[in-house]
Design goal:
Elements: E1 2-3, H1 11-24, H2 29-37, H3 39-49, H4 61-64, H5 66-71, E2 79-84, H6 92-98, E3 104-110, H7 113-121, H8 123-126, E4 132-137, E5 156-162, H9 173-183, E6 184-195, H10 200-203, E7 210-212, E8 215-217, E9 223-225, H11 229-237, E10 252-256, H12 270-274, E11 283-284, E12 319-333, E13 338-351, H13 354-364
Length: 365
């Protein structure tokens, strides 16, 4: 059911206590180096362990991002879509299964070679009914600007990144955004969804899991960061502010939760595994109340310098915000008398055209 949901009583105290507990016992410096220098190793292990027991397909994407459905319609123009951080193809294969566009070109990429193996083993990959699909290993945060195999600069219509940026170290974000910018056509879209600040999964992390501010390592060795709206906006536009016209609605959702409150929280993409799909009505722009626990931290991470020029890119703004908001879900576990928040950030960004860049540079001169 949906409702306007105030935070549970004492929610600020829960946040502060969780953060204080985590800071008292962070990950050791030796282990930080281990997790940060070989992240692909842990993703390979993850997909090896979960090869036959993976998350449900993200069919909710068709509701949240109708651009994907339009691209798969019979009369749609030639469209290239790149799924970054494809995992086992949880975005590509549901789209391919409904595709009627013979000129739809899907490209699935992942940092993990094991994930790409899983994609290539899917029957829809080996025998595609309509359209085409390719898959390759690719490092989104590559500093040399190399794009996925077969992808040229300014050749992609839509990039999809679902729970991808959060898996990177903050120092890798600028390279990641630069590489997405390079592959998109002017006017091309980035569709993204990721973890929001003070999500239940963040607050449930125990000792020896905090790598640095709001960046954690799961039990399987994979990393996860929890974003604010200002951070996401600044990453793509150079400014922390969300234009009012781009803000999503202010409705939130309440869901009943059964079973263990910790079930699946510390695995990648827990929303697909344990919670029902969102609808476009449950997104909001959310600003912490002054004095609340959520307002104590800086809004933008130090690795996101405002108005910085990214490698191989023109000055900001690189993207316009088409939509950006927070999906806040109050999860009620009546059996254990618990009220908890899931928090996700969702956005649509449009690559700025060269004319708009020239105009912005002229006005800033």
């Amino acid at each position: 059911m949906e409702d306007h949901v105030p935070p549970p009583e004492g929610h600020d105290d829960v946040i502060l206590k969780a953060l204080e507990r985590q800071k008292l016992a962070p990950v050791s410096d030796a282990n930080k180096e281990k997790y940060n220098t070989r992240p692909a190793k842990y993703w390979d292990q993850f997909y090896r362990w979960n090869e036959t027991n993976f998350f449900k397909d993200r069919k909710w994407l068709h509701n949240e991002f109708p651009e994907l459905v339009h691209a798969s319609s019979q009369n749609a123009p030639a469209t290239r879509i790149v799924e970054v951080g494809c995992g086992t193809g949880a975005t590509s294969f549901p789209l391919l299964s409904i595709n009627e566009n013979p000129r739809l070109d899907l490209v699935a990429t992942d940092y993990s070679s094991k994930a790409v193996e899983c994609v290539k083993a899917n029957p829809l990959f080996t025998s595609t009914p309509v359209g085409s699909i390719k898959a390759s290993v690719w490092d989104l945060a590559s500093s040399d600007g190399v794009l996925p195999e077969g992808v040229e600069e300014n050749s992609v219509d839509i990039v999809v990144m679902i729970f991808v940026l959060s898996a990177l170290h903050p120092k890798e974000w600028m390279n990641a955004v630069a590489n997405v910018y390079k592959m998109l056509k002017p006017g091309g879209r980035l569709l993204m969804r990721d973890y929001g600040r003070y999500d239940l999964a963040q607050l449930r992390f125990k000792e020896d899991r905090l790598l640095e501010e709001h960046l954690y390592v799961r039990g399987d060795g994979t990393r996860v960061y929890f974003f604010t709206l200002d951070e996401v906006a600044t990453l793509f536009t150079g400014k922390p502010h969300v234009p009012p016209a781009a803000a999503l609605s202010t409705t939130e959702a309440v869901e009943e939760m059964t079973g263990s409150s910790d079930s699946g929280l510390h695995s990648p993409n827990p929303d697909d595994a344990n919670f029902s799909a969102p609808s476009s009505a449950v997104l909001s722009t959310h600003s912490p109340k002054p004095g609340s626990a959520e307002s104590h931290d800086p809004d933008v991470h130090r690795w996101i310098p405002k108005d910085a020029q990214y490698p191989g890119c023109p000055p900001h703004p690189l993207f316009d915000i088409e939509q950006l908001g927070v999906d806040r879900r109050l999860i009620v576990n009546r059996k254990r008398q618990l009220k908890m928040y899931r928090v996700w950030i969702q956005g649509k960004f449009v690559k700025v055209t060269s004319a708009a860049i020239d105009r912005a540079m002229f006005l800033g001169a």
